[in-house]
């Protein structure tokens, strides 16, 4: 073991040599394979590290897709809610436009719910759920993820 606590592998080979009947000398050859061993350890861990980096990359892409799929219906919900308030604040409230905006709110809310259900199903590995209100694009993305 070195002073820094690293274990060095030092295989030796030796053979006793007799010069006199009671005199024995041993000649040993020492070879250090520590650098080779370190390289072997690093090369064994390289595929593990590559797989980890690949998983992180996929997770990043999946997170971006999830954020987009959730943010899209949320933005529509906020826009329609603000439109409802503007229609109701008119001197003569536009009830037809308000009803249409509320219908859009309900549709976008169902769409968001479908996205969440698909993500839950995907997390459980039971496959995506298509609840009827979900767009084909959302369904395809959930399957790909």
Structural features, described:
The chain has 145 residues and is mainly α. It has a domain at 56-144. It is 65% helix and 12% strand. It has three helices and two strands, in the order ββααα. The chain has helices at 34-89, 95-123, 136-144, and strands at residues 12-20, 23-30. The protein has a two-stranded antiparallel sheet. A hairpin with a 2-residue loop joins strand 1 (12-20) and strand 2. Helix 1 (34-89) runs antiparallel to helix 2 and helix 2 (95-123) runs parallel beside helix 3. The longest helix has 56 residues, at 34-89. It is rod-shaped, with a radius of gyration of 35 Å. The relative contact order is 0.08. Mean pLDDT is 77; it is low at 132-136.
Give a brief description.
This protein is mostly helical and 145 residues long.
What layout of secondary structure does this protein have?
Layout: E1 12-20, E2 23-30, H1 34-89, H2 95-123, H3 136-144
Antiparallel strand pairs: 1-2
Low-confidence parts lasting 5 or more residues at pLDDT below 50? Answer: 132-136
The biggest beta sheet is recorded as:
2 strands, antiparallel
What is the typical, i.e. mean, pLDDT?
A: 77
Structural class: mainly alpha
Strand content: 5-15%
H and E order: EEHHH
How many helix segments? 3
Let me know the number of strands. Answer: 2
Helix content: 55-70%
- What sort of overall outline do the alpha carbons produce when their principal axes are compared? rod-shaped
Radius of gyration over alpha carbons? 35 Å
